[in-house]
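Working notes for the structural subgroup meeting. M.R. asked for a predicted model of this chain before we commit to crystallization trials. I am recording the input and output together here so anyone reviewing the notebook later can reproduce the run.

Input as submitted:
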Amino acid sequence: MRTLILGSRGSQLAVYQANLIAQKLREMNLTIEIQRIKTQGDKILDVPLAQIGGKGLFTKELEEALLDRRIDLAVHSLKDLPTELPHGLCIGAVLEREDVRDVLISRQNQPLDQLPRTARIGTSSLRRQAQLRHYCPGFQLVSLRGNLDTRLRKLETENLDAIVVAAAGVLRLGLSRQITQFLPLEISLPAVGQGALAVEIREDDAELKSYLARLDHPSTRQAVSAERSFLHRLEGGCQVPLGAYARVENARLTLEGVVSKTDGSLLLRDTALGEAEQAEAIGIQLAESLIQQGADKILREI
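Returned structure, recorded in token form:
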């Protein structure tokens, strides 16, 4: 087979994830080269993500490179990947998921319930901000951009009491000692696809698709399919106060979803159950349930 060009963002975490996939493919006797590509989300670091607007802030340039045949595959954190892919592209593999939770990293090693009620907490996500405001309206949520190293540094330089980030990146980079607390799902439901890696390829690349099938983790794919279907029905992107988490046990799938006002004053949460093979239908079912409760009105206001 030809030498494969794997596209990746240039952050430390993205390159780690790209190397992880590359190594698995090299073990199949494939030749892989990694090409770093800067995305719009990487270029604009002084504006909160929710204010930039649009979808695919961290994926569009990689997808364009795939369609132009400058690269053969792209590795994404699945939570960054829009639910609608460009024509001609598909997800070739979804790897087994890392821990889905958010984590708190606090300056004084204080868990969430021991932080001052007016604590300054940094996070880039409207979803996290809304759920934390719902938990404690007094928290001062500060928009925080940059890679993980930058966010950890800003914990000190921006006079923050704590930051909240995804557990998956912290664990993949071997920084688990920094974690103060894994936030309970009851307090912070994760982003759609959080903790999962996706490999995107051209739909017509049958040979590469056959190799990637060996990396695919069926129960993770079913879980994230339910979450992405939920997100798609609500017409949300990755920068809205919306979270979901699905888990598969004994061929049964449980999906929890949340939609919140940005100030945390109203939070809608519900659960749907069903056969795992009906993952997408379960996602739609949960979205419809929350729409009946007013989720669509909340998202339209945003």
